[in-house]
Amino acid sequence: MVLVTVEVNGSSYQHEVEPRMLLVQYLRETLGLTGTNIGCDTSSCGACTVLLNGESVKSCTLLAVQADGAAIVTIEGLSGPDGALHPVQEAFHQHHALQCGYCTPGMVMAAVSLLAEEGELDERGVREGLEGNLCRCTGYHNIVRAVLACAGDRAPVGEVGAAGAAAS
User: Fold this and answer.
1) Helices (H), 19-103
2) DSSP secondary structure code for residue 160 in this structure
3) CATH number, domain with residue 119
4) Could you read off the pLDDT of 24-43 as tens digits, one per residue?
5) Is 0.90 surpassed by the pTM of this model?
6) Distance (Å, whole) CA 27 – CA 10
7) What is the CA 155 to chain-centroid distance, rounded?
8) Which CATH number fits the domain that encloses residue 23?
């Protein structure tokens, strides 16, 4: 067993963990933060995306011991103290950027990181920035619209065209 100390969503935790325990398992099984989903176990889908020291990472690719000393934010940590949604969560809601919801926590976390890292974003930049996160339901149009809304760019996306721009 290895002692791991992390800050998750603003709270400090210290646990002894098996050296081979994945970060996603630590978050879900040890801390009970089940908003971080396990999708593929191969880092292909992004459902397990969290912020590690401010950068998006796929938590199925990291061991919990590798996160020792890190600050981690999960989907549960995005909302405000009063329970208000984070602006990216609100944009996903407003733009209907989810269907089944399984990929949504990872997609939101990746979008938060993308918005923090990139200056100006356009449709192509959002699509490239989120390419490591898969959604099997939405077709991505509304996800891109939500991220662009947060970036302050309300340019029409794909098939939305002029009707979507007029409605914004």
Assistant:
1) 23-25, 87-94
2) G
3) 1.10.150.120
4) 999 999 999 999 999 887 88
5) no
6) 14
7) 23
8) 3.10.20.30
